[in-house]
Amino acid sequence: GDPLKVVLTANATESLNMVIQGVLEPGDHCITSEFEHNSVLRPLHHMEERGVHVEKIEAKDHGVLEWETLEQRIRPETKMVVVCHGSNVTGNVVDLRPIGELCRKHGLLFVVDAAQTAGLLAIDFQELKIDALCLSGHKGLLGPQGIGILCLSSRIRVKPLKWGGTGTQSFSCDMPEN
Predict the structure, then answer these.
(1) How many helices (H) and strands (E) does the chain have?
(2) How far apart are CA 101 and CA 27, in angstroms?
(3) pLDDT, tens digit, for every residue of 65-110?
(4) Are 14 and 20 in contact (CB under 8 A)?
(5) How would you classify the pairing of strands 53-57 and 78-84?
(6) pLDDT of 107-150, one tens digit each?
(7) Per-position DSSP letters for 2-38, written without gaps between them
(8) Is residue 82 within a helix (H) or strand (E), and if so which, with residue range?
(9) 158 exposed, middle or buried (CB, 10 Å; 0-12, 13-18, 19+)?
(10) What are phi and psi of 151, to 5 degrees?
(11) Which of 3, 2, 5 lies closest to 156 in space, CA to CA?
């Protein structure tokens, strides 16, 4: 992958917020599940208050999510699917491959919360057709707390959540593209 598409953050929560708030616009539709971590559900709720439509996939028996219903939920305004790879509540692991393939088939952005699984389970970013992979450094990657990672594909463009601080184009009041 492109090292310029890897962003170091404070944690997976910041990575998820950067993608959710930096991509979704009023009128967009986002599909997620009812079992997501609050690092996903709270920013999505915030975006709902700003006009983003959020749809949550329900769980069947034993907390297994009904991801097989994903394709029938896609609308013309659907932009993003956000999936927790592994739940710290149920222990269930989601098969990312069919979701990534459906997202690519329909031109949707595929965002994966791998805070619980990075370093423990194999995740092939390109093969699984992931557009944004959000990681926590202090869990399975065995790093210190306060480290997060956001890996982006070339298909996704994230607006900045913070402004200022760059050492380029110092006389411009606008945030430089680079």
Answers:
(1) 4, 7
(2) 24
(3) 788 889 999 999 999 999 999 988 888 899 999 999 999 999 999 9
(4) no
(5) unpaired
(6) 999 999 999 999 999 999 999 999 999 999 889 888 889 999 99
(7) -GGGEEEESSHHHHHHHHHHHH--TT-EEEEETT--H
(8) strand 78-84
(9) middle
(10) -105, 130
(11) 5
Residue ranges of alpha helices (H) inside the chain are 12-23, 38-48, 70-73, 96-105
Asked if residue 13 has pLDDT above 90, the reply is yes
**Residue closest to 37 by CA, chosen among 53, 58, 65, 16:** 16
Angle in degrees, 0-180, between the axes of helices 38-48 and 12-23, rounded to the nearest 10: 20
Assess contact for 65 and 92: CB atoms under 8 A: yes
Kindly report the CA angle at 46 between 20 and 165, in degrees rounded to 5?
60
